[in-house]
């Protein structure tokens, strides 16, 4: 099972007091951010992962220690049971996916694109299909592929380090290259696309919305 938790930060007032719940290293990185939305995305994402780890693993926030692999993908060190997670953010949404197995999630605000950009980032087959679609369907198709690609990259942790998967491909190209990876798609709002990637063909996907005011009390509570 894969669970995806979504936080709407559109009207959130980010409080500097929340920084006490994250690591010193994270606080230093956040202090260098100058864009308010980037700060909100990063901080709320960290808080969400900590909240989920505390809930799933029945440990306290103080027990959690995160590191990153050689690609920069974060992971929890020595969890008491399997705990895999992935984070994404776009616009006013922050989302986190958790599973007992590797998982990747991506959410995107479907902003307008032009054909030049589409051609630059898509494989020839995908771009050819894109051009054949009516104008009203192109954006949905593009972000359907884009979020699939990003969810796959977040699962593997490779980012764009591997040039062979640097362009987004048509649906059959995903099936050929992904070695048993499968996807489920959701729409948070009419202009937001969300994709989840996991290694189980029939994986169950559960979506939940989490208010910010539910997270902080859980992080404040220490294990007895």
Write a structural description.
The protein has 224 residues and is of the alpha+beta class. The protein has a single domain, classed as Ribosomal Protein L22, Chain A (Alpha-Beta Complex), CATH 3.90.470. Helix content is 38%, strand content 23%. The protein has a 4-stranded mixed sheet with strand order 4-5-1-9, covered by helices on one side. Strands 6-8-7 form a 3-stranded antiparallel sheet, covered by helices on one side. Strands 2-3 form a two-stranded antiparallel ribbon. Helix 2 (36-57) packs across helix 7. It starts with a strand and ends with a helix.
Strand content: 15-25%
Strand order of the biggest β-sheet: 4-5-1-9
> How does the major sheet shape up?
4 strands, mixed
CATH level-two architecture: Alpha-Beta Complex
Name given to the CATH homologous superfamily: 4'-phosphopantetheinyl transferase domain
Short description:
The protein is built from 7 helices and 9 strands, in the order E-H-H-E-E-E-E-E-H-H-H-H-E-E-E-H. The protein has helices at residues 24-31, 36-57, 115-121, 124-132, 135-156, 171-177, 212-220, and strands at 2-8, 66-68, 74-76, 84-90, 93-99, 103-109, 182-187, 192-198, 205-209.
Topology of helices and strands:
Blueprint: E1 2-8, H1 24-31, H2 36-57, E2 66-68, E3 74-76, E4 84-90, E5 93-99, E6 103-109, H3 115-121, H4 124-132, H5 135-156, H6 171-177, E7 182-187, E8 192-198, E9 205-209, H7 212-220
Parallel strand pairs: 1-9
Antiparallel strand pairs: 1-5, 2-3, 4-5, 6-8, 7-8
Helix pairs in contact: 2-7
């Amino acid at each position: 099972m894969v669970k995806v938790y979504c936080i709407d930060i559109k009207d959130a007032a980010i409080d500097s007091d929340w920084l006490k719940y994250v690591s010193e290293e994270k606080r230093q990185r956040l202090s260098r951010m100058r864009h308010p939305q980037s700060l909100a995305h990063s901080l709320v994402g960290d808080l969400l992962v900590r909240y989920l780890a505390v809930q799933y693993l029945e440990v306290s926030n103080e027990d959690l220690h995160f590191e990153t692999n050689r690609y920069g993908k974060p992971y929890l060190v020595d969890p008491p049971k399997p705990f895999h997670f992935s984070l994404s953010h776009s616009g006013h949404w922050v989302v986190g996916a958790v599973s007992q197995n590797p998982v990747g999630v991506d959410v995107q605000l479907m902003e307008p694109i032009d054909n030049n950009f589409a051609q630059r980032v898509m494989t020839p087959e995908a771009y050819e299909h894109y051009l054949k679609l009516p104008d009203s369907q192109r954006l949905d198709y593009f972000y359907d592929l884009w979020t699939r690609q990003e969810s796959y990259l977040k699962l593997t942790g490779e980012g764009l380090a591997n040039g062979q998967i640097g362009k987004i491909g048509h649906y059959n190209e995903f099936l050929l290259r992904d070695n048993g990876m499968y996807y489920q798609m959701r729409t948070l709002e009419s202009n937001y696309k969300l994709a989840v990637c996991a290694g189980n063909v029939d994986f169950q996907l559960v979506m939940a919305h989490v208010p910010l005011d539910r997270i902080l009390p859980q992080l404040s509570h220490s294990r007895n």
